[in-house]
Amino acid sequence: MPQTCSKPSDMAELVSSQGWMDEMPGAKAELKEGNSRTGPFGLLPALTEEHDSAEEEEEEEEEGEKPKRRGPKKKKMTKARLERFRARRVKANARERTRMHGLNDALDNLRRVMPCYSKTQKLSKIETLRLARNYIWALSEVLETGQTPEGKSFVEMLCKGLSQPTSNLVAGCLQLGPQPLFLEKHEEKPPACESALAGHSFGYQGLPSPPYGSVESQLLHLKPPAFKSLVEASFGSHPSDCSTPPYEGPLTPPLSISGNFSLKQEGSPELEKSYPFMAHYPSLSLAGAHGHGSHFQSSVGRYEIPLDVSYESFAPHAAGPQLGAIFNE
DNA sequence: TAGGCCATCTGGTCCT
DNA sequence: AGGACCAGATGGCCTA
C-alpha cells in the first residue's frame, strides 16, 4: 500500500541531516528537487518517532481517533534498530537499482540484435520484447519451412502486435536497402561476448561485409549471425548473474557458427535440409559445448547439431537445452 | 495537457 | 538473516 509523506521538506531535512542519503544519489536528487514521491519518505514517519516529539504527539492524537491497531505491537524503534533498518534499506535499494540496471543492460543487448537497431530511436522495453518474440518466431518459421519469406511477409511477421511507430521503424529498416545493422552494432559498443567472439573462427567473418543490401539479402544474411547474437545476448553471461557484467573469461557460446551447416532430423534419411541461407553461409553450423555434440527440438523434429569446432576454451554451461527451449516455445 | 515510458523506492514473498 | 524477485506507487521527461 502506498505510504506517502505529507511533509517532504521536513523529511528531507531530517533524513539528510542524518547522513544516510549520502548513499542514495537518487533519493538525494529527489530531495533537492522537492520531490515528494513515495520514495524514501514512505517509512519515515514510523522511523522518526523517536526523533521528533512534535510528530509523535501528532501521531498519538491521530491514533486516538482511529480504532486500535490489531496484531503484535510494533517494536519500538531504538536508535540502533533504526540504524540497522536504514542500512538494510539503503543496501536493498542499491541492489534493486543494480538489478534493474542489469535488466536494462540485457534489454539493450537484445535491442542490438534486433533487425532494426537504432541508436537514435530506441525501442521501448515492451516493444523490444514483442519484436524479439516476433523475430524468434520468424526465424523459427524459416527453419521449419526451409523457405525464406519474401521481404514483405517477413516484415509483417516482425511487426505483429507492435505499435504503429515501431512497425514503421521495422519496416523502414528492412526496406530501405543498405542497412548498416551489424556494422553499426560492431562499431558502436560491441557487447562483451561479441568482442570475445572475435577470437574464434565464427563463420560469418568471411561473408560480405555489411551493409548487406537488398531486403532479400538482408533476410538471408541477417538471420544466422543475428540469431547467434540473440542467443548470446540471452545466455551469454552466467545465468545466475542478473546484472550481466562483462564476461572476460573464456567465451561460452551456446551456439556457434562455423564449419559445415547441417541440420539432421533424427531417424530420417532425407534429414539433411537445405536452408536458403546456407548458400550464403557455407560454413555455418550450430554447435554445443562439452564436445558431445548438441541438439535441439523444434516442432518439426529433433535436430542433431554436429560438433565441428574445438571447445577447449568453452565453459561447461552450454545452452543446448536452452536453445531447445527457444524452439519449443 | 494527456499519455507513454522510465527510474527509483518500497514492502512483501520466497528461497538459501 | 539476507538476497533475489516482484508489483505498486510516484514523479520526471518527452512527445503528439
Helix run count: 12
> Which strand order do you get reading across the main beta sheet?
1-3-2
Low-confidence stretches: 1-72, 177-329
According to DSSP, the number of beta strands is 3
In N-to-C order, the SSE pattern is: HHHHHHHHHHHEEEH
Shape: elongated
Q: What is the rounded distance between the termini?
A: 36 Å
Percentage of β-strand residues: under 5%
Overall radius of gyration: 27 Å
Q: Profile the largest sheet.
A: 3 strands, antiparallel
Q: What level of helicity do the residues show?
A: 40-55%
Structural class: mainly alpha
Mean pLDDT across every amino acid position: 49
Protein name: Neurogenic differentiation factor
Keywords: Activator, Developmental protein, Differentiation, DNA-binding, Neurogenesis, Nucleus, Transcription, Transcription regulation
Main location: nucleus
Organism: Cyanistes caeruleus (Eurasian blue tit)
Structure report:
- Helix content is 47%, strand content 4%.
- The protein is elongated, with a radius of gyration of 27 Å.
- A hairpin with a 2-residue loop joins strand 2 and strand 3.
- The protein has helices at residues 8-17, 25-32, 44-47, 53-65, 79-113, 125-145, 151-159, 164-175, 181-187, 192-197, 215-235, 320-328, and strands spanning 264-265, 294-298, 301-305.
- Mean pLDDT is 49; it is low at 1-72 and 177-329.
- By secondary structure, it is mainly alpha-helical.
- It starts with 7 loop residues before the first helix and ends with a helix.
- It contains twelve helices and three strands.
- Strands 1-3-2 form a three-stranded antiparallel sheet.
- The structure holds a DNA duplex (16 and 16 nucleotides).
